[in-house]
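Hello support,

Our group uses your service weekly, and this is the first time we've seen a run hang past the timeout. The protein is NADH-quinone oxidoreductase subunit F. I'm not sure whether the cause is the sequence or the server load. Input pasted verbatim:
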Amino acid sequence: MSETLILSKRWGKPDSASLASYRADGGYGALDKAMGADPAAIVDEVKKSNLRGRGGAGFATGLKWTFLPKDVRPRYLTVNADESEPGTFKDRYIIEHDPHMLIEGIALTCYALDIHLAYVYIRGEFAKQARILEQAIQEARDAGILGPRLLGKKDFPLDIHVHRGAGAYICGEESALLESLEGKKGYPRLKPPFPAVVGLWGKPTIINNVETIANVPWIVANGGAAFAALGVGKSGGTRLFGVSGHVNRPGVYEKPVHYNLKKLIMEDAGGIVGGRKLKAVIPGGSSAPVLAAHEIDISLEFDAVKAAGSMSGSGGVIVFDESVCLVRALARIAKFYAEESCGQCTPCREGTSWMEGILEKIEHGHATAADVEKLEQVAGNIAGNTICALGDAAAMPVQSFLKKFKPEFLRHVEAHRCPMGESGWGLDQSSRDALVGAVRY
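Update from on-call engineer: The timeout came from a worker crash unrelated to the input. Re-ran successfully.
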């Protein structure tokens, strides 16, 4: 049975990023349809669609849009393209292969919410994708889609600016992103007030992730109910799942939002390399709690993964086979969060580096059982005690690895070395191709 593809259906087509290609496939038809509709009807359709944010939090998009105060202008849309969580790599492919789908989604969102200026905050390293998006925006301006008259039909001024970040992970957090966009250091803000009320330059601002906004044209063209029907319960539509690690076919897969995690790994991604046994899976980017091999026969829908003790998060599925030293893997994750902490909150600034140091001691056989207990205590003192979610993002992997695989940590202590020696990084996967939609890299 064929599955509905919304986001990746045009990936792999020649010149798919061009306006001509997009229009040949019906692109901007949803925006044309919306020109004859009440803007409020677009909001209603998005609410009916059960579209939840694809950046990690999974908040209801249509509900978020209603938080804008009715009588405050100007207001802004900011699209978060600062995709930088380890294991997450899908938004960049939307921009690279179908930028006009994102632009149409931005135009529809702005029209629905009476917004006349939108920003796309893109990670600094994505130079190629930034260039492609800027070219597509200029194409849309030249064609009269953007500018003083929306689609050349409606007196509705709209423009989009691309802003390249400097590569700081914290700037993917929505309030730090706003600070950065305003030209300041990317420190997260205390909330409330939330950005929908006090956002960019103190004005109401909706912040949505790239994948979230890219779904809006399909919802407007086909109706919110049709999108909801592709999903389950309170989660509608499809999602892009980026599968990496020890699978035979790593890549980006578009599947219904409630697709089975085990099926995704063992069938779509080709199973485990070399016929080895599966050891562990992180289902939603490096900040999500890890699952043991026997826990992966679950739906990937947000609430289902939460019920299983983890997070669907950004849809980044990281697979570890039996050859991996999980202490070493966790030490690498902890190092990332220690380096990316902005340093504003003491528990995060001091605690992430502390966890990194303890993990290094354990991995190299210099730790005691008391160090393992201390690691657990430090993680517990970070979680829930910081302004933004980076503290939780650093603590949750540590807590879950210890909960699921504590004997492996204690074996390092007892043996005074890594039991797996130099092979603990797992198999060399550098020669494998990655499948992204219909494109093989």
